[in-house]
User: Which sequence fits this backbone?
């Protein structure tokens, strides 16, 4: 890669680490950033190992901070979504998927801001909603590592404590990324060239995890949920713009 490509790749890897450290929506910009200098498919292949290594740091940090009930409602749907992504990999238009994810994310963020959802009474985990949004999240995560917006539509109204939210999110996407390894390898996205670039990017990825942990442990619930809601707006707008 040229210098610009490496700069964008380092920023993308650091954003992945921040996401695994608890600032979940920040990682959504990783593939769009790297896709500015290469195909989205190659960008996703390069960044998956960075996600995996960052997941390990997040799993260690949040090993006691998660909600197993939420995970039980989400994971079966997510695995189904990943399987659908694998089955349709050669027929998927990245821009169209990004457009759908962007519309969902923007609609949710605007609704949360206009109606004051942050700080509202918590909803309980539900199998129906969890399966639906888990499937969408798994599918979009497989296509372009952009499963955070659909996940947030389901998870944010549950009003978990910030550390519990961060831990549940980290474990959910760690499971998704582990499941994605096999189909990604079979599709040729884990080539030696991509892995060599990913190896370098693991350093800023781990540094991002540490930075994310430092920040999320110092945020109040109101600031935390306000941050991830506002962060969803520019990310969703970028996905919509690219899709259009």
Assistant:
């Amino acid at each position: 890669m040229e210098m610009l490509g490496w700069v964008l790749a380092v920023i993308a890897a650091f954003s992945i680490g921040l996401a695994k450290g608890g600032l979940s929506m920040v990682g959504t910009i990783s593939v769009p950033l790297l896709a500015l200098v290469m195909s989205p498919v190659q960008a996703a292949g390069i960044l998956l190992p960075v996600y995996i290594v960052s997941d390990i740091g997040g799993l260690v940090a949040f090993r006691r901070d998660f909600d197993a009930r939420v995970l039980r409602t989400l994971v079966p749907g997510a695995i189904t979504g990943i399987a659908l992504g694998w089955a349709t990999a050669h027929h998927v238009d990245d821009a169209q998927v990004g457009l759908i994810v962007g519309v969902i994310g923007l609609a949710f963020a605007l609704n949360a801001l206009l109606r004051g959802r942050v700080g509202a009474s918590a909803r309980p985990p539900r199998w129906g909603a969890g399966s639906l949004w888990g499937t969408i999240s798994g599918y979009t995560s497989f296509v372009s590592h952009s499963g955070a917006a659909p996940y947030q539509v389901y998870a944010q109204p549950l009003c978990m404590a910030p550390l519990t939210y961060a831990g549940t999110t980290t474990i959910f996407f760690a499971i998704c990324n582990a499941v994605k390894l096999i189909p990604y390898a079979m599709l040729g996205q884990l080539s030696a060239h991509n892995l060599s670039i990913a190896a370098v990017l693991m350093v800023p990825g781990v540094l991002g995890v540490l930075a994310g942990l430092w920040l999320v442990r110092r945020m109040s619930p109101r600031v935390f949920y306000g941050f991830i809601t506002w962060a969803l707006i520019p990310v969703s707008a970028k996905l919509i713009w690219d899709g259009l």
The radius of gyration is 16 Å. The chain has a mean pLDDT of 83. Residues 3-243 form one domain.
